């Protein structure tokens, strides 16, 4: 569930780009072509462009982390596990 939550920002951007008709390149998942034991996985690295999306995700994750402290302070313990799903989704999903 956390993985799905963590993808909301990138999926929202993709949907908005499609609605306004913006053509973007389809970026494939990097493949490492490890076919035999002689091929090395660690030698092949792909460089990712750092854009503003990870910063937005970290900011939203921080918001939900603060919401956890607020819920605990107000003795609303039932909401903490659900809020924790959002924190994990936005902070951990760096794929």
Give the overall average pLDDT: 81
Q: How many β strands by DSSP?
A: 0
The helix content is 40-55%
Low-confidence stretches: none
Task: Tell me which oligomeric state these chains represent.
Answer: single chain
Largest sheet: none
Q: Termini, distance in Å?
A: 15 Å
How do the helices and strands follow one another from N- to C-terminus? HHHH
Question: Strand-residue fraction?
Answer: under 5%
Instruction: Based on Cα principal axes, name the global outline.
Output: flat
Query: What is the overall number of helices?
Result: 4
Summing up helix and strand content along with how strands pair, one would put the structural category as mainly alpha
What is the gyration radius calculated from CA atoms?
A: 18 Å
What does this structure look like?
- The chain contains 4 helices and no strands.
- It has helices at 2-6, 8-20, 53-73, 80-92.
- 8% of the residues are buried.
- The mean pLDDT is 81.
Give me the secondary-structure topology:
Blueprint: H1 2-6, H2 8-20, H3 53-73, H4 80-92
Structure, briefly:
It is built from 4 helices and no strands.
Which tags fit this structure?
95 residues; single chain; mainly alpha
